């Protein structure tokens, strides 16, 4: 099904107060995005399905308007929304004539309707329909997973997939190529032969999934236990749709060993979680609540190579599955056993454990790593605080922060987000903003001094900052005379090229000492 709103949907919403000035027969058009532009030629930034909003700020002659609308039609723009009441009180007739001439509807947008409200309506409608699609396909997947599905029932599942995606599904049967009833009816013989060729190539290559094009058809191919599937339509596939195809393919032509299917039933949820956690799909909180119905809390684990690993770290594709299996076994003894969901991200993995608090998860991960003797013994994990499924994206970020913080704690195998300290958060902030070049300059200048002198200067600065610039207290802290401290501070200013009277320099020095960019000798520190 098409996820986008239509122009008619926008006009039907009373809160938006939109009206159609021309193009009433074209209100079935889908609106995929909303774009605001007040430039001479916005067409380079527009794509199919865009609703272009403008106030007519740029004055155009009839010839220029004709050229503009010709460009919009070439880009397959859905419509133009003209804001009235700010620059002009009504849509000029020349705009309406140009819209009629090129088949572009023109909508009237009152001054009281913010442009952002129109954009939010379109985004919200797409999210709502996407969520409905996920629910329906989860239902199809569950029926295939937990029943001894006959070939006809499997084909029924493919028909529903085809209807949802407005596509045709092709597969290789003993009597030749077959396809679903649903899907485009205008596939040419040449395109059909191309689909057959792509199915054969995919089968020979042994790939799990792939995308290609045959003529103007976009194909997404997915492997099953038997023939691969080719899903064909005349528009591209979103990451969510690719995940739906792969998850349904998992249950087609299986040996029907139903004892194994319960574990496979998590595959769609895992694919959707991966797409959301990596940012490839909008992480609507309602999506996570749908994936974990009736679950009040969940915990996320970020798992990957430890900080001591070589720079060119090799991926361990089985590592996530091993951890998932170990945690599932460990948690099976609890009153409420949970099935962890695995997501592959970056050079590591994320595990989402529904219904379990972080204490039980930490114990299970710690036990797994302690028993490892191979490469995985050096891997480390960060564990989020428990939270509602709707906050899964934030929990994933928490777990990542805790995982990265293990770099400063080589003795710690598993670190909870709740155990992060101020220095960990500062390290995280500095990593995100990039290492200040001045820190490296300071280290280089100190390295040119003898070790004892460098330590004395850093200790003097650290004590001075720890006592908020109070010389007497800083001297007492170091056990030296005030004049001695004053001399060392002047030397530090000269060697480092800073001024301790400058708030900016003092702040940078404090950050360097607090985060370890400048090592703090015994007896000093910013406190």
Structure, briefly:
With 527 residues, the chain is α+β, with helices and mostly antiparallel strands.
Break the fold down into its secondary structure elements and pairings.
Blueprint: E1 5-6, H1 7-12, E2 19-22, E3 30-31, E4 33-36, E5 50-54, H2 62-74, E6 79-83, H3 93-102, E7 106-109, H4 115-145, H5 151-165, E8 168-173, E9 176-179, H6 189-205, E10 209-214, E11 217-222, E12 229-233, H7 239-249, H8 258-264, H9 267-277, H10 285-291, E13 298-304, H11 319-331, E14 341-345, E15 348-354, H12 358-371, E16 380-383, H13 392-405, E17 414-416, H14 422-433, H15 437-447, H16 451-466, H17 471-478, H18 482-496, H19 503-514
Description:
This protein has 527 residues and is α+β, with helices and mostly antiparallel strands. It folds into four domains: 5-118, HprK N-terminal domain-like (Udp-n-acetylmuramoylalanyl-d-glutamate--2,6- Diaminopimelate Ligase, Chain: A, domain 1, 3-Layer(aba) Sandwich), CATH 3.40.1390; 146-265, 2-Layer Sandwich (Beta-Lactamase); 295-430, 2-Layer Sandwich (Alpha-Beta Plaits); 435-514, Arc Repressor Mutant, subunit A. 46% of the residues lie in helices and 15% in strands. It is built from 19 helices and 17 strands. The protein has helices at residues 7-12, 62-74, 93-102, 115-145, 151-165, 189-205, 239-249, 258-264, 267-277, 285-291, 319-331, 358-371, 392-405, 422-433, 437-447, 451-466, 471-478, 482-496, 503-514; strands at residues 5-6, 19-22, 30-31, 33-36, 50-54, 79-83, 106-109, 168-173, 176-179, 209-214, 217-222, 229-233, 298-304, 341-345, 348-354, 380-383, 414-416. The chain has a five-stranded mixed sheet with strand order 2-7-6-5-4. A five-stranded antiparallel sheet has the order 9-8-12-11-10, with helices on both faces. Strands 14-15-13-16-17 form a five-stranded mixed sheet. Strand 8 and strand 9 (176-179) form a beta hairpin. Helix 5 (151-165) packs antiparallel against helix 7 (239-249), helix 16 (451-466) crosses helix 17 (471-478) and helix 17 (471-478) packs across helix 18. The longest helix has 31 residues, at 115-145. It is globular, with a radius of gyration of 31 Å. The two termini are 60 Å apart. Residues 254-265 and 310-315 have low confidence and may be disordered.
């Amino acid at each position: 099904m098409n996820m986008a709103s239509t122009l008619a949907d926008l006009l039907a919403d009373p809160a938006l107060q939109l009206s159609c000035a021309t193009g009433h027969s074209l209100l079935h058009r889908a609106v995929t995005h909303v774009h605001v532009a007040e430039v001479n030629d916005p067409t380079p930034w527009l794509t199919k399905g865009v609703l272009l909003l403008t106030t007519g700020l740029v004055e155009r002659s009839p010839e220029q308007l004709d050229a503009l609308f010709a460009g919009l039609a070439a880009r397959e723009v859905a419509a133009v929304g003209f804001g009235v009441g700010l620059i002009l009180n009504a849509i000029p007739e020349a705009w309406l004539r140009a819209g009629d001439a090129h088949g572009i509807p023109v909508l009237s947008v009152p001054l009281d309707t913010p442009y952002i409200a129109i954009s939010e309506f379109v985004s919200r409608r797409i999210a709502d329909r996407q969520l409905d699609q996920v629910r329906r396909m989860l239902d199809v997947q569950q029926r295939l997973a937990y029943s001894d599905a006959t070939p006809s029932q499997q084909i029924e599942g493919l028909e529903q997939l085809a209807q949802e995606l407005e596509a045709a599904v092709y597969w290789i049967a003993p009597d030749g190529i077959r396809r679903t009833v649903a899907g485009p009816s205008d596939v040419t013989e040449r395109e059909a032969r191309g689909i057959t060729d792509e199915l054969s190539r995919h089968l020979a290559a042994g790939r799990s999934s792939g995308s290609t094009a045959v003529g103007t058809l976009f194909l997404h191919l997915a492997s099953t236990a038997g023939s691969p599937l080719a899903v064909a339509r005349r528009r591209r596939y979103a990451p969510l749709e690719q995940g739906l195809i792969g998850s349904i393919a998992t249950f087609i032509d299986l040996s029907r060993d139903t004892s194994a299917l319960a574990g496979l039933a998590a595959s769609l949820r895992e694919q959707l979680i991966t797409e959301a956690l990596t940012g490839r799909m909008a992480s609507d909180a309602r999506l996570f609540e749908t994936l974990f119905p009736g679950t009040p809390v969940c915990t996320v684990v970020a798992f990957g190579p430890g900080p001591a690993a070589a720079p060119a770290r090799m991926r361990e594709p089985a590592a996530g599955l091993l951890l998932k299996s170990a945690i599932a076994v460990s948690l099976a003894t609890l009153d409420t056993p949970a099935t962890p969901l695995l997501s592959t991200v970056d050079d590591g993995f994320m595990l989402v454990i529904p219904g379990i608090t972080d204490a039980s998860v930490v114990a299970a991960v710690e036990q797994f790593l302690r028993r490892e003797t191979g490469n995985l013994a050096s891997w480390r994990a960060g564990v989020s605080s428990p939270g509602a499924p709707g906050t899964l994206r934030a929990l994933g970020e928490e777990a990542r922060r805790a995982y990265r913080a293990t770099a400063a704690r080589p003795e710690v195998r598993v670190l909870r987000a709740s155990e992060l300290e101020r220095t960990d958060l500062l390290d995280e902030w500095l990593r995100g903003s990039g290492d200040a070049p001045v820190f490296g300059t300071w280290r280089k200048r100190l390295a040119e001094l003898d070790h004892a002198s460098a330590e004395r200067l850093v200790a003097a600065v650290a004590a001075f900052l720890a006592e908020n610039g109070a010389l007497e207290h800083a001297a007492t802290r170091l056990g030296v005379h005030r004049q001695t401290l004053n001399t060392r501070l002047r030397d530090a200013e000269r060697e480092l090229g800073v001024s301790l009277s400058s708030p900016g320099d003092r702040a940078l020095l404090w950050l360097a000492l607090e985060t370890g960019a400048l090592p703090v000798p015994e007896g000093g520190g910013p406190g």
